[in-house]
Amino acid sequence: MDITRETTTVTTGRRAQGERTRQAILETAVDIASAEGLEGLTIGRLAARLSMSKSGLFAHFGSKEDLQLATIEAARAIFIHEIIRPAFEAERGMPRLWKLCDIWLSYVQGGVFSGGCFFAAAAAEFDGRPGPVRDRIAEIMKEWLDTLRRAVVESQEAGQMERDVDPAQLAFEFNSFELGANWSFQLYGDKQAFARAREAILERLRRYSTLSGSSLLPPPKEKRRSRARAR
Amino acid sequence: MDITRETTTVTTGRRAQGERTRQAILETAVDIASAEGLEGLTIGRLAARLSMSKSGLFAHFGSKEDLQLATIEAARAIFIHEIIRPAFEAERGMPRLWKLCDIWLSYVQGGVFSGGCFFAAAAAEFDGRPGPVRDRIAEIMKEWLDTLRRAVVESQEAGQMERDVDPAQLAFEFNSFELGANWSFQLYGDKQAFARAREAILERLRRYSTLSGSSLLPPPKEKRRSRARAR
DNA sequence: AGTTGTATAGCACGAACGTTCGTCTTAAAC
DNA sequence: GTTTAAGACGAACGTTCGTGCTATACAACT
Hints:
Two copies of one chain form a homodimer.
Chain A: H1 2-13, H2 17-36, H3 43-49, H4 54-58, H5 64-87, H6 94-109, H7 118-126, H8 132-157, H9 167-188, H10 192-208, H11 224-229
Helix pairs in contact in A: 2-5, 2-7, 5-6, 5-8, 6-8, 6-9, 6-10, 7-8, 8-9, 9-10
The structure holds a DNA duplex.
């Protein structure tokens, strides 16, 4: 409560230009980083894209690492705003679980970040470089995995999913499908990968559902066979 | 045979020295690249690790891109030697399909490359940078995906797997599990991820198997369970 | 013995990197 | 109207990058 008031007081009372510029920088930074990586996110390139001087831009962050960390936070905010929040408007349980996966796939497909999933790329880039950046990425991805796992648990608690399903196992599998779809799309431009991921996820949701023909999930595709032939 | 003698004898000929050095360079290059990425694979660092001069090393390759491409080929050779070849010793059909997945997981777990799967890392790094390097990586990963898909088809032809399974779909799912396990292990050091991937793959193989309780696959539960707990 | 060709080293280059510094502008505070 | 400080700038730092040129050590062949 105090914090929000504090920030508004500062921004309106004092010159708001600094924070506004910083925000514009981070917006561009997220875009560059998702395509070129957090290391390819260069201060010079960033400054050029924003028609700023390197030094003027750099003054907003104490170091390159700080810039990377701030960029990660900005990407997390977008992720929460674009995926978590809308998915949580769905009813707790299987609908929410499905919507989490569905929206995630849509957000990669729709190109919210031009380089695919920001965190998948960042994780692959930094998984071998210890430090605060890697730690923060790992934390955020664990948040996501935990959100999936909790949605599975809640599905079971709501009596919508069989109880002998291991939530962590299912979360692992769903996350893997998303990584797989992202990988296939980024490397081959293969849009069909999203359909494959959705099919894999839905197949499992239906199989573990306690309600046969549940209206909690979208209706099954008609002839899966004929579609598979056309390739 | 010759190689052991070669190392002891210096008089193998000046002309053979070049290729031998080149091979030693690539061996180290693959290791560095798997951990630091193909861009982090720096000529200076590589030369330092090998106690060579930058220029002397550089002379073996016309450009950095050539070095990257040569490193990719070296990694592919290792991949074929360590995974494809031993898996193809298994009987064509489900045993081979399973062994492909199983060995892949073992090879990441065993740390053949210190940065996890070389190609998963390279694909993530280059998926947004057009050029020969990216193209070659995409080709090689397609080879792998195709190997999986063909193993599925052969399982069906051998009458071991239900025919209404879409081979490309199953290959996508298995590849996703492998990417997921690699991701989880690299980011969290989570060895349990390999057990999860194996469980997911085996579950599907058993479900689609035409032979219930098939001896073509490892037996369910038992040791794998207790092993998964010990972490 | 002298020539030739290969393998490596030495050195320097231009560019780009992250970073620091001093300076100018300008809106707000007094 | 003067003072203050935030914000942006240009120049330069030292380092590392990839990449050329040139020289040398040595095996092979004439």
